[in-house]
């Protein structure tokens, strides 16, 4: 199965991707903007796996997301991308409104 995961460099997303690559035969495309919460170091153990692909992009970029969907043809999408820090939402709510 081909699975697109948004926010895959975050805490939960990276744990999910590591599990899928290590314990299944699924292909995983990780779509992440790599903001303050994203950390590719947490995916170092599976980064070179042929069933894993990383794309740095913003989920609000419709053209990029459409191109990824057309090329990868995922059979499932797990949407984990989100702005999550409350203090940041007070200082800059527009990012939270667009992403969440």
UniProtKB/TrEMBL annotation:
InterPro entries: NAD(P)-bd_dom, NAD(P)-bd_dom_sf. Residues 4-100 form the NAD(P)-binding domain. It holds the Pfam family GDP_Man_Dehyd. PANTHER family: DTDP-D-GLUCOSE 4,6-DEHYDRATASE-RELATED (PTHR43000). This is dTDP-glucose 4,6-dehydratase. It comes from Pseudomonas fluorescens.
């Amino acid at each position: 199965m081909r699975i697109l995961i948004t926010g895959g460099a975050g805490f939960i997303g990276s744990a999910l991707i590591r599990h899928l690559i290590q314990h299944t035969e699924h292909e995983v495309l990780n779509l992440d903007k790599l903001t303050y919460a994203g950390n590719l170091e947490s995916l170092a153990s599976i980064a070179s796996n042929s069933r894993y692909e990383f794309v740095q992009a913003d989920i609000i970029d419709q053209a990029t997301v459409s191109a990824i969907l057309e090329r990868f043809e995922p059979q499932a999408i797990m949407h984990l991308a989100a702005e999550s820090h409350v203090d940041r939402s007070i200082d800059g709510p527009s990012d939270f409104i667009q992403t969440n």
